[in-house]
Amino acid sequence: MTLDSKIPDGPLAEKWTRHKFNLKLVNPANKRKYDIIVVGTGLAGASAAASLAELGYNVKTFCFQDSPRRAHSIAAQGGINAAKNYQNDGDSVYRLFYDTIKGGDYRAREANVYRLAEVSVNIIDQCVAQGVPFAREYGGLLANRSFGGAQVSRTFYARGQTGQQLLLGAYSAMNRQIAAGKVKSYPRTEMLDVVVVDGRARGIITRDLITGKIEAHSAHAVLLCTGGYGNVFYLSTNAKGSNASAAWRAHKKGALFGNPCFTQIHPTCIPVSGHHQSKLTLMSESLRNDGRVWVPKKPVKGLTARDAAKIPESERDYFLERRYPAFGNLVPRDVASRNAKYVCDEGRGVGPTGLAVFLDFSDAIKRDGKKTIEARYGNLFDMYQQITGDNPYEVPMMIYPAVHYTMGGLWVDYNLMTTIPGLYALGEANFSDHGANRLGASALMQGLADGYFIIPYTIGDYLAGMPYEKISTDRPEFKEAIEQATGRLHRLLSIKGKKTVDEYHRELGMIMWDYCGMSRNEEGLKLAKKKIQELREEFWQNVNVLGSANELNMELEKANRVSDFMELAELMVDDALHRRESCGGHFREESATEDGEARRNDNEFAYVAAWEYKGENQPEVLHKEELKFENVKLTQRSYK
Amino acid sequence: MKLTLKIWRQKGPNEKGEFKTYVHDKVSPDMSFLEMLDVLNTELIKKGEEPVHFDHDCREGICGMCSLYINGRPHGPLQTTTCQLHMRSFKDGETITIEPWRAKPFPVIKDLVVDRSAFDRIQQAGGYISVNTGAAPDANEIPIPKKIADEAMDAATCIGCGACVAACKNASAMLFVAAKVSHLALLPQGHAERKERVERMVAQMDAEGFGACTNTRACEAECPKGISVAHIARLNREYYNAMLTSYELPSKAGGDG
Predict the structure, then answer these.
(1) End-of-domain residue from the set B110, B142, B158
(2) Chain B residue closest to A124 (CA)?
(3) Neighbouring residues of A60: CB distance < 8 A, sequence distance ≥ 6
C-alpha cells in the first residue's frame, strides 16, 4: 500500500484555492440522489451534516447520546482560534499556520495546517451569523484573548463555554435541516461497524441503544466524526461515553490509523481525589493567562491550598516563569504538563497526594480586582469550588495534568478521506492537523473547519464518480457485518465472569498512564504491551456483563467499547515504542536534551506513522508518510 | 458515610416501576453523586443484580445528559447538575430518594432514564437562524452592544437538561423554550425570523404536551445554569407580538404560553 496524501501542487497559500477549483462538482439537481451517513454529532459531525444537507445531499446522523446537542464538543471551554487580526497585533493566516505547525512540533502536514488557518476566519463569521454569542467589547465588536503557544490574541470565546455555544450553533443548523427533511437524526444509536462493498464504504451497522435492535444503513459515503480515544486511559477529561469503537472498527476494516501514540495531556485539570474517581475535570487553559503556577522550593508534605499563603514569596518556585521567561505560564500544554510532573517527581507537589501544583490568582486579583477576574473566569471558579470545596478567589487552585485529547486518529488524505474509499474522518477522529501536540483553542477550529468548509467541497469530488444507485442492505456484506457485531455482543454477555467492565477499564488506564503517559521509555512500553495482552485475555474470560442485548443495557455498551480500547491500547504502545524520539506530547526519556527538554529526531522520524491492521493478534504493519517542509524551517521548539 | 437509597426501578417503558431500597456504606464525601451510584452499581453487579440505569456523559455540568430527582428536587439540593453535586452535601445516615424526571412528555425508558426527545423537536421547530454555510458576512460587520450580547449568552447557556420541566408542577417547558427564543430574539441576526420562531416553538411545545406556565418560578429556582424567568417574560412579549402581527401561521390556534 502506498499512502497518497493528495496534497495539491503550487505555493502553500494557493493550494486550497487551486484544489477547490480542480475538484469535481456534483450538479445541484443530482445531489439529492446521494445519501451520506454522518456518525457523531459534535462540532465536526453536526457542522458537516448541516452543510451537506444545505447543499442538497440526504444525510443521516447517528449519536449515542440522547440528543445530538450533548456530544462532547459541548465541554470545550476556552475558545476558538481564528486569524482575524481584529486586535491589530500582528496576526495573519501565515502566523496561525506557523504557530500551529511549530506547536505541533513539526509532525503535521504544512498544506493541511495552512488550509486550517485559512478557513479559520470564515468559521467565526459563520458562527456569529448563526447567533453564537461570543464575548464582545463595549463598542460591540468581538473580544479576543490569548492562549498557550501564541503571542497574539486570536482566541474568540463565549465565557468558559465556547464549545457549548459553537456546538449549539451547529446543532441549530442541523435542526433546521431536520425540519427541512434533509437530515434524519438517530439519537441513542451506536455504530458497531462500517460496511465495505467492492472496496468502498457503503454503509454502517448500528445498535438502537434503547431496544437493542441491530440495523443496517446503506449510503454513498460515510463520515466518521466520532472524536478521540482519550478514554483508553479510563481517567481523562473526555465524557464517560466518548469511545474509539467507530474509528477502531473502521481501522479493522482497512482504514489506516495515524500516529496513535500522540496523546495530549492537559496541564490544568482538577487532581484525582480517590479511587472512586470516574473522570477528570479540566480547568480551561485560559486560566494560565492570569494564574501563576508554582510549588514550594523545598518539599512540604501535604501542603493544602489553605496553607499556601504561609509559604513566603521567596520560598516559591514559579517554575514555568523561571524556566521559560518568554512564554512563562503560557507555554504549550505538553511543556506545562511535563514540568508539573517533574516538580511532583522531585517531591515538591502539593495537596494530600503530592500530585498537584498551585495555580494562583492572588496577584491577578490584586492587579485587576475580583470583579474583572470573576467576569473572565466566574463559571470556572464556581465549578472548581463545587468539585473541591475550595474557593479559588481566596486560596490557590490545585491542578495536575490529565489526558485530554488525542492528536492521533484515522489517517486521512488532504480530502479527509481514509484509506477506505468513501470513508471520511473529521475532527478529532482524524490525525491530521495538530501534529504531535495541539495548541489550545485549535480543536474547535479544526472540527468546524472540517465540517463547514472542507468536506462540503471534497466529498463532491468522490461522489461525482459514484453511480446514483442505492445498494440494498440485504447484500451479504451487510449480513456478515451484522453477524459479526451481534456475535461480539453475545460473546460479552455469555462470559459471566467475576470482574466488572469498569474494573478492567481502570486497570487498562493505569497501565497506559504509567507507561504510555507523559513520559515513556522502551522498557516500560515493552512491559505495558505484555500487560495489555494479558489483561485483554483475562477480560474475555472473566468480565461480567449482566442483562441482555435486547434492551437498554449500559454495561453492555461499556463492555463493547472497552473491548476496543484494549486492542487500540496495544497499538498506541507499539507506536510509542517505534518512535524513538521525543516530539510534542510524545516524550521518550531516551531522547532528551541535557536540561530535560524534548529532543526531536527529524532525520529519522519526520513522518506520519500509519498503521495497517492485519488480523487478530497479528502485528500491525507500519507505513510512513514523509512530511515535507517547504515553508517552515525545522527548529527545536523553544519557549524560553 | 452510610446512606439508605430509595431508588425508582423500572424494567422498561411499559413495565410497572417501584421503589427499591439499598443500603450503601461505601460513600466518601468527595464523591460526586454519580460516582456514588457507580460504586453502588459495582456492588450490585458483583451480587448478580442489574445495575441502576441513569443518564450521564460529560460529568462536568455542561452536556445536560444527567438528570435525577433527588429528595424531591431536580439535580438535588444545590442549584447545579447532578454530576456536580458531591456527597459532602448530604449527612451520614441520611435516606435519599432518587426518581427519574416525572413529566408526561418525558416518558421513562428504564429506571432513571427518560426520553427527552421532545426538547429536540421543539428546537427543530424553529430554534435556529436560517443561514447556510458560507453565506455569512464578516463577523464584526454588526456591532452588538456588550449588554445585549451578555444577556443573549445568559439565555444561551441552557443545557437542555429538563430540570425546569421536572421542577414545575405543570410540567411546563417555558423556561427551556424561552431560553432559545430570548437568545435569538435579542441578537440582531435573529430578528428576521423572530415571529415565526416563537410561534412555531410554542406550538411544538404545546403539541408535545408540556403544561402551561403559572409563574411559580420553580424552574428558575432549580435551573442549574441560573436562567432567569425574565426570559419567559420576553418569550411572552415575543409571542403576543407575533400573534397580533404575524403573517406566518394560518391558524392562530395553539398554546396560551
Answers:
(1) B110
(2) B139
(3) A35, A36, A37, A38, A183, A184, A185, A186, A217, A219
